[in-house]
Batch of 2 targets.
Target 1
Amino acid sequence: MSAESRTNLLLVDDRRENLIALEAILEPLGQNLVKAESGFEALRHLLTKDFALILLDVQMPELDGFETAKLIKQRERTRGIPIIFLTAISKEPQNVFEGYSAGAVDYIFKPFDPDILRSKVSVFIDLHRKTEELHRASETLRERDLAEFRRNLAESMPQIVWTTRPDGKPEYFNRRWTDYTGVAGEDAVAGTGESALHPDDRARTAERWRQSVESGEEYEIEHRFRRASDDSFRWHLSRGLPIRDESGTIVGWVGTATDIDDQKRATEAQRFLVQASSVLGSSLDYRSTLKQVAQLAVPDIADWCGVDMLEEDGSTKQLAVAHSDPQKVAFARELSDRYPPDSAAPQGAAKVVQTGEAEIVPVITDEMIEAGARDELPLALIPELGLRSYMCVPMIARGRILGAVSFVAAESGRTYGQADLELAEELARRAAIAVDNAELYRRADERAQAAQVLATVGDGVCLIDGAGVVRLWNPAAEAITGLAASEITGRRAEAILPGWTELAPQVPVSSDPGTASTRAATVPLQIGERELWLSVSGVGFEGGTVYAFRDLTEERALESMRQEFVATVSHELRTPLAAIYGSALTIRRTDIELGDDMRDQLLGVIAEESDRLAQIVNDLLLASHLDSGRLHVSTERCDGRALAEQVVDAARTYAAEGVELELDAPDDLPQVEADPGQLQQVLTNIVDNAIKYSPDGGAITVQIAPNDRFLRFAVVDHGLGIPVSEQTRIFEKFYRLDPDMTRGIGGTGLGLYICRELVRRVDGRLWVESREGEGSTFNVEIPLAAGAAQLTPAARAPDATAA
């Protein structure tokens, strides 16, 4: 009897000699006898082996036969093993009862007949074998039924189901595989199933399957199968699990492939929309972002993506075209340039832009290509692109068509359906919103820039609507008039601008901005106690009239001063010229005899008036140089007292009778840093001015004293004095305190202006202190020369009166 066919018998007795005796009795049966000398050892054997029968001694130390039997019967695996008790001591009825209660099938007393024991054991051996045979037959039948059930289940499942051998070679594909891919199951088993896979997925699928077969790990991958019904590739999730036997050895693989194309496209659509929205929102340059979106759509959504925009002239212009192959992109652009979008075509971006309705062509046929070709050239070239499916959707925002987005499927084998069209329409909607927002932002930015221009422009600008209400009043208008926008806007112009009703008809209003024929009108406007002269022009439109005005009040005052200056200069020039001319004519007369004294007197008049005329001309030239910045200033260390003394001595020679000139200055004054000639001219002008405005005579004193870092020259007179309101204006060019010469005081109005500018150029100060009718004190401070002593006997005058 082979070892595989022998049955295990467990012999349990605490006496070795008894075990040997049992072994000798049962040896003729030819079975596998396993011996145990205790109940614990018997239990250990039962954990690892199956037995047909257990021969168990009752009396054993620690764990007796009854206790061992009870433990055996408690385990599911050993509960059905027959037990025969063997005993030479426990022969009482209660012991026998306990033995049967513990699960025994027989209770044999020692000594026993060996033949009878062998017969009983043989019966149980046969029973065990028959039970095993029945079990194996049942298992075989069950496995056969289960396999048939599994096969029927696999055939009825809507998913693709497959099985392979342990080495990964296919052995079965269900009917769904054949119906879906068009490849027969037996052909797939033979090795042609790979043809149903997308070419781009074959290599990575084979590699992933090889890894799983070698490692025994679960197989899972997403790849595309060709669907035979429409020849399109659709995404599937394939999973495979190893089938292992009781020892853990892989005996095969079973797997499924589930169509997840719709779910994957929905996920990709959401991801794409999120990415597209991010790109669209990343910049206000919508042309750039739309190009990026077109690139983003390839190849996940389309093999080709194009964007066409509606131009202002109503034409359609291609903004972007994208494909993974740059050469194909160049080819497509060449076709677009050669054959621009035609709104009269039955299909295409131009048609979608014109109608505002989306187009979808699930399958592009050769007939469609032929119908759309304009000549033989595109008919020969377009098939090379392999176009399969197409859709085009309009970009519409706030009811306005902005353009269209086109999607074309080619080498991917994708076929567009309703879900794809909805995705395309959502993308176009978001793109249209982005374009519209960019346009709105641009217009808002232009309006903001216009508002900024209005806020910073130097001219006043106001808007008065058709009802005469002020709607706009810019900062320049506030500055010119002194009227705040909050006080003006929303109120009628005639109520807040005195005399507006009379002034408005005088202002020219054009209907065309920038019309050269409309000249601005200069009109007066009384604001409180101020009289403003404004240059005003207007432009009318549907909402009212925009007026622009410029303040000419100061220019008008300067013009008035210029006219007065011209008149004054003319007078000042005529006076010496008249004296010179009269004296010259007198000298030339031959009808009278002039004595030497008279002739010398007349020549003196000519010389004196010539000097006066030269001084006027020099003042005019100096003022011109000061205005143009051409006057050269060369400073040096000089003696301010000596210069002042020269000026006082010179003034005494021509001062009117009754005017007394004095110099009040210590001998040891520090030197100053100045241009000697220009400083002398400043002192001369101020002393001359004091003499001129002391018509009744009086003392004029030139005081000199150091003051901190300066040397101060103060020219004090007791003449007419200067009103407080005029004390800052007397240093303006052309300004004269007595323009009408009511006191006979002439002049060009340039002397004090020249003084101010010359003093300012050496970083000095000039101001006046005066009371009307009591005289004036003109103060000049010139910086001390470097290293000169600094004394502070007096405080400096306030800045408000500084020149």
Target 2
Amino acid sequence: MGRKLLYQRRKSAINLAGLALAGLVLDAGACSSKTPSVRTDGPTGGSGIAAGTGGSGPSAGFDTGMGGTDVKIDPNMGGGGMMVTAIGGEGGESVCAEEKHPAELIPLDMYVMLDRSLSMYAKTSEDITKWDAITQALGAFAMDPKSEGIGVGLQYFPANHPCSADEECDSGLCYLKACRTSRRADATLPGLIPCSRDADCPKTGDSCVPLGGCGDQSCVSIDSTCSNEETCTEVEKGVCSSETVCTLSDYTTPEVPIKLLPAAADALIESLAEYSPAQSPYGLTPTGPALEGAIAHASDWAKKHPERRVIVVLATDGAPTGGCTPSGRAEIAALAAVAAGAEVPVRTFTVGVFAPASPDDPDSNEGPDTIRAIADSGKGQAFVISDQSNVVKEFADALIGIRAVGLSCDYQLPTAEKGKQLDYAKVNVEFAPHKDDEPETILFVSDPMDCGDDGGWYYVKDELSVPTGISVCDATCKRFRDTVTGDVSISVGCRTQLKPVVR
């Protein structure tokens, strides 16, 4: 939507000092009780005031108009030092000195956790693999001029590192050979057993032979035809083998660190080429530890960069496999819920590419249902894509949608005048759906849990509970996104308009 700079000043009748909201001691503002008013600052109702005393200046009660909220004025700041408690009631009308600033979006960082299990090498209806379709879309997103300034980091799951020889692996084998006839008994693991010599194969008389791949299947009979009608072709590059890749630390460190686009685009594209599943036909889908690690890294990054908003994007094509924990849908979704509700929140978005659900297969909805649950719990959005569609376009559209949602709901705090502090109790968010509309004041909620269907806005805070930005509730965010001609502005100087909360 367009953002239009709105700036106006209104003359102040009386400057009041140190109004505090939510227990914060803040800088001087500029509101006073007076009629007739230029701006009405509070809803009406009964009244109630408890006044205290200060150093110098008048000692009196001040009706905040903020029913049900304790508001304190620091006695050490100018203006006489009053303690005011509004216990529910009628607010007076006020004349305020107000400045309006354009609502500047908080910069966005994305940590992408990308599935590179063997099934990603299955072909779509467009006759390209899911991996090729997804990586084309990611590359286009990274090069899109509209992505400039967005930070992107990347990691893969499972975290088997590509290799071409055993010595390139810290432990285990480079998976380039497999036993011809020996198979694993554990049905949750790939059937083929990696080896480097005949003695590694448990079955008597078995031999260690080159590993091949035929689409989304592994094979050992080179040049034969697999059950999916693909030809078994010997792999040129493998991965360091391990039965499962469930270690959290494998996913907390990005393969491509978070950096700003477009400068980071080349590193992302080069990494996607190196980690192609076509070179690693051994891999499961350890969704639980992958998401947990992604959230851990994103949360740490968000704490270190409070001026930016950080999200996780989980991209996959299947339900969790491999025996890692957590593995259940509810347990994995709970990870996203905790991150979204943290003091420094991190939302989780999901994108999945799946075969159409089959009424004869009750498990065919497991993947889509899992990513929906994760995104819903993580206060993000799920994008479910059919592998029978134009996957390149739909995956690119999903990334654009995530970019839009991630950017449309979070705003920077206005900059205070030099030598002054921003008074958090005198900030309002205003929205005009159309260019010439009278702006509407969006009401403040102290807790995102109080957003409700009619929306509102709240402060995003750091670990010390100091506001670092402004976020709007989901219902309000949808209103903002649904208009292309509206204006959002941040108004400073008049008492914050509170949403009545019924508990």
